[in-house]
Amino acid sequence: MAPMQNPIAAAHAPDERPIHRFTIPAKLAKLKMPGFEPVTSVGIVELVAGEQRMVYKRMKEEDGASTLVALMTAALRTVNDQSVGVGDGSADTWVDRGMHPKVRDLLGAAYRQVNMVDDESVSDFLQSQTVASGSI
Questions:
Q1: What is the CA angle 85-91-95, rounded to 5?
Q2: CA distances from residue 130 to 39, 120, 125, 127, 136 in whole angstroms, order as listed
Q3: How many whole angstroms separate alpha carbon 104 and alpha carbon 39?
Q4: Which end of the chain is less enclosed by CB atoms within 10 A, N or C?
């Protein structure tokens, strides 16, 4: 069994999660919002439970669509191969004002692919159910 990680040290350690990079298709990479350059690529990470909890706490009174936008913003690490983040507000700026709606929709698709389970896996998991009586 691997040793338990010190949670305080882990909170201050560099983020070494892999960044999943996606290239925006050429016909959509031409679309841009006023005052921003076109988005040609995005990079996202797999969110840890604490990041998801933070988003859910902030979004308590919002609708589901807003929660998805907040989750994909929290996962966003690069735009056009340049670092962005939630801490400095740059990820929020790109998602809120810098991305064309069609590009933002692609970011949502990337978030779902990286952070959510596919239907086939859910089906396989649910079909694996067994029932036992008494204690196991």
A1: 165
A2: 47, 18, 11, 9, 12
A3: 10
A4: N
**Rounded to two decimals, what is the model's pTM?**
0.81
Do residues 85 and 91 lie in contact, with contact meaning Cβ atoms separated by under 8 Å? Answer: yes
Distance separating alpha carbons of residues 114 and 44, to the nearest angstrom? 8
Query: pLDDT tens for residues 13-65?
Result: 577 899 999 999 999 999 999 999 999 999 999 999 999 998 888 777 666 56
Q: 85-132, pLDDT tens digit by residue?
A: 989 999 999 999 999 999 999 999 999 999 999 999 999 999 999 999
Nearest to 75 by CA among 20, 9, 32, 36: 20
3-state secondary structure of 1: coil
For every residue of 6-52, DSSP letters joined together read PHHHHHHS---PPPEEEEPPHHHHT---TTSPPP-EEEE-PPPHHHH
